[in-house]
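Before a colleague's protein record goes any further, I have to sign it off. My question to you is simply how this chain folds and whether the tokens agree. I do not need a full report, just your reasoning and any doubts. This is what I was given:
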Amino acid sequence: MRRSEFHRAVDDEFGARATSVLTDLTLGGVGYRTAAQAIADGVDPRIVWRALCDETEVPESRRHGVGLLDPRR
């Protein structure tokens, strides 16, 4: 997962709350840092996405493949 895919996934899942979720919520899965701090510290965006999904109880059906652009035709 690229950073751009991570940010699209967060925007798609959390909408207007995306910025707050990234900067206010600490995630145990990345050392009790916020998602924004973890990304800035170089943690793989896929790991941050999984930690964010675990913490906010995003259903499995909405965790995989999000953030990807539609393939070109």
Remarks:
- The helical segments are 3-14, 18-24, 35-40, 45-56.
- Residues 3-62 form one domain.
- The CA atoms of residues 9 and 66 lie 5 Å apart.
